[in-house]
Amino acid sequence: MSTENGQGMRWIALTGVNGFIGHNLALEFLEQRPQTLKFEIEQILGCDLETSTGRPTHNSKKDRANYEFCPAPRLLETLLEKERQWGAPPIAVIHNGACSSTTETDPEVFRTLNVESSQSLFKYCSEKKIPYLYASSASVYGNGERGFSDAVGKNHTYSPMNMYGQSKHRFDSWALSQTQQPPVWYGLRYFNVFGPYEEHKQSQASILHWGSQQIRNTGQIRLFRSHREELGDGEQRRDFVSVFDVVRVTLALLERALKPQTAPEGRFVNIGRGEAASWIETANALFQAMDRQPQIRFVDMPQALRLHYQNYTCADLSTLHDLGITDPFLDLEEAFRRSLKVRA
Length: 344
Prior knowledge:
Blueprint: E1 11-15, H1 20-31, E2 43-48, E3 67-71, H2 75-86, E4 92-95, H3 107-128, E5 132-135, H4 163-177, E6 184-190, E7 192-194, H5 207-218, E8 221-224, E9 237-238, E10 240-242, H6 243-258, E11 265-271, E12 277-278, H7 279-289, E13 296-299, H8 303-306, H9 318-322, H10 332-343
Parallel strand pairs: 1-2, 1-4, 2-3, 4-5, 5-6, 6-11, 7-10, 8-13
Antiparallel strand pairs: 9-12
Helix pairs in contact: 1-6, 3-4, 5-7, 7-10
């Protein structure tokens, strides 16, 4: 261990490890895949709320020598304990733990899980002078009428359509207002992410999860009819991005944040393909990935969803490209195929 030579252990803290994106990130770190992990990490401190039925679990990782788990309520306490035990604070914190439900209506859930937890870790990273990467969301852009630019100067112009988006926007705005900040921080505005280990999201899961189930069980996919006169059925368009690309980009941003020559900066960073695909196009790509003939049936959109439904999302990737991350994203069919192989 590095603690033997007085330098302290190189470790990171990663929240949300029993969730969707956090679980995929934890696996990527633990597998030490050379094509993505370009910096040495000796230990992972994983954190989440207690595991519940149907969620990805840290149990498959807890026997790894380089992985420890702590429940979310003890995170800050555990961070200080590990500093003493491992001889140094973490080299970075990646915060994916949150309530990501767009249909949750309890404001206290969002206040505690999405805002206050993010604030406490932001303050910790500011004090320890370490990079902080956290999950923001494309939901902050609301109905998209003001575009999808992640430029910090435009943050105040957006009006999220649901409590989830409002909580993410509230923290984003708070972070910008702080005089004491981490040396490097990135608010990662994920667009419509899909991939393996999202089954626990149930109604919030992507078309990969419920669409593949419908195809296997009935041979067809059900899509919402459009409730807007100017849009045809299934022509609502979203920026669908695979979790494989989300992990790749997140690690590239972490690598940048850890470079000594990186100047202090705080930015929001869109993570999407930068392309909007219609639901019909997306469904057809899933049928192709499953080697099935497309069969689509349209059903009415529930009234409760209509007021908060994003009919169009598309990431503006200017900031991502400005940061030097320009590798192409997986196309939908290839990403679906890779995801289905993991799930098999």
